[in-house]
Amino acid sequence: PSPTSAFELDKTDGCGPLTVKVTNQSVTNNNKSFNTLSHQRRFGDGTSSSDVNPVHTYYASNYTDTFYSIKLKVISIDGCANSSVQTIQVFPNPTAQFTPDKVAGCGILPVKFTNSSTPKDTGNIDMMSFNWNSGNGVTSTAKDFTANYAASVYSDTVYSVSLIGTSEHGCK
User: What is the value of pTM for the model shown?
Assistant: First the structure.
C-alpha cells in the first residue's frame, strides 16, 4: 500500500520574515517503521529539504501578501509514494512615514505631522494603527498628529519624533 503523506504547520500565516516549524505526520500503511519512509519537501520558494521535521523561514514581498505552497512527498521502502500540500500566507511589513509642516521655528512651535504610511499589501492607511511619540513626552494613536514644541532659554532644542505603524495583520 501507499503511505499517507501528512504534516502540520505551527503557523499558517504571519508577518515576514515568518519562521515555520513543519511536523511530519505521515504514516507508512505497511506495518513498517516510520523511519523507512523517505521525505521530499518543497517549500514553495525554490528551496527543498529531506529533513523529517524542518524549520523554514519565509519572506514577504515588499508590496503584497505572499502565498507559498508547501509540498511533502513521502516514499515507502517499496517505492510507493503519496503527496500532500498546504499553503501559508506571509504579510509584508508596513512602512511608517510622515511629513512635518514645519521643521524649525520659535517656541512655542505647533507642528502638524501628516501621516503617509502604507501597509504594503491589499489594505490601506485607514486599516492601520499608529503610535506616535512627539519627543516631548506627548504620545498619540491618531492617524495624523499635532504637537507643540517649547524652546530652551539658552540654546536650540532638537526633538526626535517617531511613528510606529501597524498593519491590519499586526505587522510592524
Answer: 0.86
